[in-house]
Specification:
single chain; elongated; 30 helices; mainly alpha
Length: about 575
C-alpha cells in the first residue's frame, strides 16, 4: 500500500506540475511521461474502485484534456494517444464525477483525429479504443460514430488493410437512420477519396497534424487546387490553357463542393454528388492513367467487403422506407464507379444482387419506384452497365408482377415502358448510337448479342406482367405477336415470344409457369411445380399440357394421372 500511495502521489504531481512548465503547458504531448501518468492513475482508480480517488484525479485529468485540446493548433507532436487515455477515464468514471463524455468525444474527433487520422499509431489506437468501448458508445452515444463516419472512412482509406479486421468490427456502428443513405456513396467512392488524399499530401506535405477541413480558410491550397484542376481538365499545373494568366483556368474555386464533399469529416446529410459532370469524368480518367499506389490497391480490395457488410445489415436491420430510398441512389451510381475493371465488376455485382434481394423481400418497391425504374429502362441504350441494370429491372418487374396485384395502375405504366423498350429494339438492329459502318465486326456482334439478351428479358417481363394483370393480356398478345412475326436474326427471341403466346392461351398453365412466387395474398407458390397433394380435390393445372400438345400420335407415357394422385 505504501508503494502504491507513493506512485499515486508521484503521478498526480506530474499532472499538476505540467501546468506550470511553459513548454508542457503549451504542448502537453511534449512530455511523454504525462501519457504514462494518466494510464497509471487510470489503472489505480480501476484497481481501488474508490470514488474518493477518482474525485481527486478527475480535476487534474480534466485540466490536462482542456490544455491538450487548446494546444492542438500549435502542437509539434501527436497528442492523440494522450487524449484517448483521458477519454477512457471519462467513459469509465464519468458517471461518478458527473462528467458527460459526449462533448469530449466529439472534441477528440473534430479537433484531434481530423488532424492525426493519417498517423498509423493514432489510427490503430483509435480503432482499438472504439472496439474496446463499442457497447458503451452504441448505447450511451448512438449518434457519435454515424456523425463522424466520413472521418472514419478517411482513417481506413489512408491506413489500409492492416486495420481492416479491427475496423470491420467498428463498421456497423457507423450505420444509423441518419447516416445510412449518405454512407452508401461514400463507400462506393472510397478509391476516389484515396486519390484526393494523396493529392493533398503531394501538394501540402504530410497529412499528420494538418486539418484538411481548415483548407477552406487557408491561403496555402493553390497547389492542391491546381492539382485537382489537372484531374478535372487534364491540363498541367503550369499550362493554364489558352489564358494562362486567368485564375479560373488554372485553379478550382476554394469552395468547390466536389472537393469538400470528398474530404469532409462529418456527416452533413446526403449531398448531391457531381460524379456525372465532365469534370469528374476527367478526374476518373486522370486517376487511371497513373500507376496505382499501394493505398489505392488496398482500398480497391477493401471497399467491396465493406459493401457486403453494409448490404447485409441493410437487409437485416434497416426499415423498408430507407431501403426503398436507397434503391434509386444505387441505380444512379451503377454506371458511375471508379474505373478499375475488377473493382467496378465487384461493386456492380453487389449493387445488383442487393437490389434484387430488396425487391424479393418487398415486391411493392417496384410499384413505389416506378418512375426511377422507367427512367433506367429508357437509358438501356447508353452503356453496357446501364443495359445490364435494365436487364435486371426487367426481370424484377416480371418476376414480382410489377409490385403485385394491388398495383394495377403502376403495372400498366411499367408495361408501357416495357412496350416502348421492345419496339425501340425491334426498330433497331443494334444498341448504342452511331453508324454501323464505323464499328468493327466484333463490336457489332457484341451489340447484337446484348440486344438479343435484352429482348429476351423484355419479352419475358411482358408475358409475366400480363399473366399477373390479365387486363394487359390483349396488349401483350399484340406485342409478342410482333416479335414472333419479326423473324429477327436471333431465333431465340422470336421463338420465345411464340412460346409465350402459346402459353397465354392456357391461363391456368400460364399462371403456374409465369406467375409470381409471392402472390399479393401472401401465400408462397413456386412457379412450374406440381402440388400433387392437392391433386385429388383440385384440377391439375400445373402439368404443362402445352408441351404435350406438340407431340403427335398416341401418348408417349403408359401411366394415368390417377395413379400419381394421393387417395383419401
Amino acid at each position: 500500500m505504501g508503494d502504491r500511495d507513493r506512485d499515486w502521489d508521484w503521478h498526480l504531481r506530474t499532472l499538476s506540475s505540467s501546468a506550470r512548465d511553459s513548454n508542457v503547458a503549451n504542448d502537453p504531448a511534449y512530455d511523454s511521461s504525462l501519457l504514462q501518468s494518466v494510464k497509471k492513475l487510470y489503472e489505480l482508480c480501476k484497481a481501488e474502485n474508490s470514488e474518493d480517488l477518482v474525485a481527486r484525479v478527475y480535476p487534474q485529468i480534466n485540466k490536462l484534456f482542456q490544455r491538450s485540446v487548446a494546444s492542438l493548433s500549435q502542437s509539434r507532436t501527436s497528442i492523440g494517444l494522450l487524449l484517448l487515455a483521458i477519454l477512457q477515464f471519462y467513459l469509465d468514471f464519468g458517471e461518478r464525477v458527473l462528467h458527460d463524455a459526449d462533448p469530449s468525444l466529439r472534441t477528440f474527433f473534430r479537433s484531434c483525429l481530423s488532424r492525426e487520422f493519417a498517423d498509423p499509431v493514432v489510427a490503430e489506437a483509435t480503432v482499438d479504443f472504439l472496439n474496446a468501448n463499442k457497447k458503451k458508445l452504441l448505447t450511451s452515444f448512438p449518434t457519435l460514430l454515424p456523425q463522424f463516419f466520413p472521418l472514419m472512412l478517411k482513417l481506413i482509406a489512408w491506413n489500409g488493410e492492416k486495420l481492416e479486421k479491427s475496423f470491420m468490427k467498428v463498421f456497423p456502428g457507423l450505420m444509423s437512420p441518419g447516416s445510412f443513405l449518405p454512407l452508401f456513396p461514400s463507400l462506393v467512392d472510397l478509391p476516389i477519396l484515396v486519390v484526393a488524399l494523396e493529392k493533398v499530401e503531394k501538394s501540402s506535405g504530410s497529412l499528420v497534424g494538418n486539418s484538411i477541413a481548415s483548407m477552406q480558410k487557408s491561403t496555402a491550397p493553390e497547389m492542391l487546387l491546381a492539382l485537382m484542376d489537372e484531374a478535372y481538365t487534364g491540363s498541367t499545373i503550369g499550362d493554364g490553357g489558352g489564358d494562362s494568366e486567368s485564375e479560373d483556368s488554372s485553379t478550382i474555386d476554394v469552395a468547390d463542393p466536389l472537393f469538400f464533399d470528398l474530404l469532409k469529416d462529418e456527416n452533413d446529410g446526403i449531398a448531391e454528388r457531381h460524379w456525372t459532370s465532365p469534370g469528374m469524368a476527367a478526374a476518373l480518367q486522370a486517376a487511371i492513367n497513373t500507376p496505382q499506389s499501394d493505398r489505392l490497391k488496398h482500398i480497391l480490395r477493401m471497399a467491396p467487403r465493406f459493401l457486403d457488410v453494409y448490404f447485409s445489415i441493410a437487409l437485416r436491420d434497416v426499415n423498408n422506407s430507407l431501403v426503398c430510398a436507397l434503391i434509386p441512389l444505387l441505380m444512379s451510381r451503377n454506371a458511375t464507379i471508379f474505373p478499375d475493371k475488377i473493382y467496378s465488376y465487384e461493386v456492380r455485382k453487389r449493387l445488383l444482387e442487393f437490389m434484387l434481394a430488396a425487391f424479393q423481400r418487398s415486391p411493392d418497391f417496384i410499384a413505389l419506384l416506378k418512375k426511377p425504374i422507367m427512367d433506367r429502362l429508357g437509358e438501356a441504350y447508353d452503356s453496357p452497365e446501364k443495359t445490364e441494370l435494365a436487364l435486371q429491372l426487367c426481370w424484377a418487374i416480371g418476376e414480382h408482377g410489377g409490385g403485385g396485384g394491388s398495383h394495377k395502375d403502376e403495372a400498366r405504366e411499367l408495361f408501357e415502358g416495357l412496350e416502348l423498350l421492345l419496339y425501340e429494339n425491334l426498330a433497331s438492329s443494334r444498341l448504342g448510337l452511331g453508324q454501323e459502318s464505323v464499328f468493327s465486326s466484333d463490336s457489332q456482334t457484341s451489340r447484337k448479342s446484348s440486344q438479343s439478351r435484352l429482348l429476351c428479358f423484355v419479352v419475358t417481363a411482358i408475358a409475366k406482367l400480363a399473366t399477373n394483370h390479365r387486363e394487359l393480356l390483349p396488349r401483350a398478345r399484340v406485342s409478342l405477336g410482333k416479335v414472333a412475326r419479326s423473324r429477327i436474326s436471333d431465333v431465340r427471341v422470336w421463338r420465345r415470344a411464340r412460346d409465350y403466346l402459346g402459353l397465354m392461351t392456357e391461363p391456368a398453365i400460364s399462371l403456374s409457369v409465369m406467375g409470381p412466387s409471392r402472390p399479393s395474398h401472401g401465400q408462397m407458390q413456386n412457379p412450374g411445380t406440381v402440388k400433387w397433394s392437392d391433386g385429388a380435390t383440385k384440377m391439375i393445372a400445373h402439368v404443362p399440357f402445352y408441351i404435350l400438345g406438340g407431340q403427335e400420335g398416341p401418348p408417349f407415357h403408359d401411366f394415368l394421372f390417377s395413379d400419381t394422385l394421393p387417395r383419401r
